[in-house]
TrEMBL record:
UniProt xrefs under PANTHER family: GLYCINE OXIDASE, SARCOSINE DEHYDROGENASE-RELATED
Naturally occurring in which organism (per UniProt): Actinomadura algeriensis
Pfam families the record matches: DAO
Keyword Oxidoreductase part of the UniProt annotation: yes
Protein name listed in UniProt: Glycine/D-amino acid oxidase-like deaminating enzyme
Domain of life: Bacteria
Amino acid sequence: MRIVIVGGGIIGAALADRLAPAAEVTLVEQDRPGAATSGASYAWLNANDPADARYHSFRVAALDAWRRVAAGFGDPGWCRFAGNSAWAVAEPERDELAGRVARLRDLGYPAEPTTAAGLREVEPSLRPPAGAVVARFPGEGHVHGSAAVEALLGRARDAGARVLTGTAASRLNVRADRVTGVRTATGDDLVADVTICAAGWRSPLLLSTAGAGLPLVDAEAPGSSAPGLTATTTPVPGLVNGVVHSPGLDLRPTPEGGLVLEAADLDAATDLATSRAELDARAAELLDRARAMFPGLTARLDRVRRCVRPLPLDGRPLVGPQRPGLYTVVTHSGITLGPYLADLVAGEILGEAAEPALAPYRPDRPTP
């Protein structure tokens, strides 16, 4: 079977890794694999939302898939299950955090109310203010997206996959209502029995060339919620072990010992029209907030990135066939879901049988 995958982020890389041992796989990426959304993502591995029990279980299975991936690579530094620490000071955030912990515990998910002193036993540098509601989620983790993509594609290449970089897929080729592959920007036609669209937020443009659509938030609209902002610092080894969510600042470590910084308010203020000067100013604000959390912090900003996320209108994955020969895999939380989706999708494509776990997430379902 000939399979062409469009998109070299975490979804495309996981699919190539999973499919290459059993098929003739070609992956097409217009930039460098892992250089866009996957590389800029905060990349928190979690099933931390209990609102939809079915989707929560789906994400729990995805965490297990990541543990298998990490074990297969010898527990690399780019994937760590060091937990997530969170605290809230003001209302209604205090009640929300305490309630979320209780609901997650009812679902059997590892979630623990704790104290500032208890938190210091696992994160010695963290000092939540007096009176804060504090929680630990010890089964959660984080991934360094670009390194994960590199490792997955390296293994896919070893299994025979071809990876074409710096090559955009300009259109889907269609014959008698069947998608037969893609045409690249260089005018080459790549023939496929199955073409997988894993192009993230850019997927609607590619799919439109075959008359297909996708219910995503418009990333290019002014004020769109799809773009966000992350900043990475120079190394400060040992400052934190895992993911941290605090009022006004979220952070996690990088494999090199730096910090990835993000904040909901600055994220929401970022869109595709945000200038480089504005991005840099917001990143400086992130660093100021980190210095307030860690007095004496000597780290400097190393990289400032706009992260453009593919956001399905209902917040759930978009996975499944859209035309004969065309299969789409696009989702938010692509980092968390990538390897698990790859397992499920490979079962459908290679086994030619519908996967029940994907039934709620088909691209043609009704959406808001």
